[in-house]
Sequence to fold (596 residues):
Amino acid sequence: MDANGTLALPVVPPTSEQVFTTVHTEFGHCANEEYRYTSQHTPGTEALDHVEQDPPYYILLTTYISYLMLICMGHVRDFFGKRAKSAEYRHLMPADGYAPLNSDFDSFYTRRLKSRIEDCFAVPVTGVAGRTIVVYDRYSNDNHKTQHLTGTKTRTLNISSYNYLGFAQARGGCADAVEESIRRYGVSACGHRLDAGTLDLHLLSEQLVARFVGMEDSLISSMGFATNSTIIPALVGKGCLVISDEYNHASIRVGVRQSGANVRMFKHNDMNALESLLREVISQGQPKTHRPWKKILIIVEGLYSMEGTMVNLPAILEMKKKYKFYLFVDEAHSIGAIGPHGRGVCDYFGVDPRSIDILMGTFTKSFGAAGGYISGSKAIINRLRLRGYSGVYAEAMSPPVLTQIVASMSSIMGVSPPVPGLSASSSTSTIQQTDVVQYSHPGPTPASLLPTWMNLPRALADGSEGSSRLRRLAFNSRYLSRGLRKLGFIVYGNPNSPVIPLLLFNPGKMGVFWRMMRQRKTPVVVVVVAYPATPLVTSRVRFCVSAAHTKEDIDTILTACDEIGDVLDLKVGNAERWPLQRILANATELVHMEHD
Fold:
């Protein structure tokens, strides 16, 4: 206060740590109900097609020239470096009769391209990956071959973590439940599921997951990547055919390779290409023998993490009725993130999940936990418990992680009060045998599916906070996606997707964009993505929106992108443009627009 009793500005500007402690650092407060939206497909309309907007020719030309220069100069430097500084290439050259473990050709991209922006990757952080995150400051004196910590830290706005619903919190009802579970169970099950590693928490979690996604049964795994890579070989084998979207995750590709099944790919989300391929493979049968396939399994993702696009599920289900194939949907990024009830693409499109044979998902993104699940019919899940390697050989999921899953998922569904006179054990047994999940009205979590010692706060138990998080995420996703398009950027993906890729194209702009965002007055930490995770010429920055972000946080990101976009010549989109102030002042209008 000054002499007149009014607030005075501080003499010394606050640090980033001080700025972010004025509001909640893990989950931002946002009481304005206008900043809410329901993520749902409009009934009677077709799913949005995946349309990639092409940049101007000069952008593509300069991008190709940049890569050409990097590759040519890299080979020149390697030619002279191997002769003048042979010690630096010792790990790539044969020595004493041993072949090098590192391939010279394979490591070329890492050495000559990625190393130039190495400071943008694997940044060490500490604390909770919530609305903000604390980043360790570092520097390099040898062109990023090594990084050195300065001893200081910076709290930054976090738009890079898969914390879609904001459950990455060290405080609150879920965190309290996890703390109690550690006191009761410790931190490890100390075994795999077929030995002494099955806890009551595993059984409760699997029942809860099955109820949440609308399936008969489910199987949980301690690692999301391993869920795909170890379960797919138990579903298909030699004589089977897997048809995979070209942009499917690496875990799916690894699982298909290990299975020994034949694999064909179709153009991303192109239903005409998929149907044409189906007709071909069904008519031709197996290679050489032309016998009918033992089974055909189509694998797609609900939400593609690099593109932000959503699968055209209604169209695939129509084809499923016609061509009689099995369908596997990977919902790693869509479960908990889209749909009016947060139950993934089935919820978003309003289709019965039991029309899909296998639903896979992870707990790492929307639920603030770890691991993955497979859900389907009881017959399939019982087979996978024995044939899937992760269940037989992998360590069982730890009790604290299981508790986080149960608490966060229950807070989305809400919890029904217990039935008087019915014990927890008898209630659980009854649900296992007779409870049938109806997708149209799955209802809240029965109290019997929660541990007796778990007492969630009222806002979590009645589902109100979970519903608010879903609607906040939907608003933030559409606001940022639509806002970036109106500023003139090329943005991929569905406007309801929490994954928003902004195209950079030129490899030199990746590092500059990351550093300019990091060095702002309000620092922002982002993720830049390039080859081989994306096609060579479509490098991008990938924003991951969270319900923990406030409208003001999205304003901060849009303002930063607007300024940096002018400097780096990134505003090359062809959508109708709005000035920044109009976007910030008309966020609600922008979110509720049907089309860009």
Remarks:
- The chain has three domains: 16-55+467-592, 65-120, 173-456.
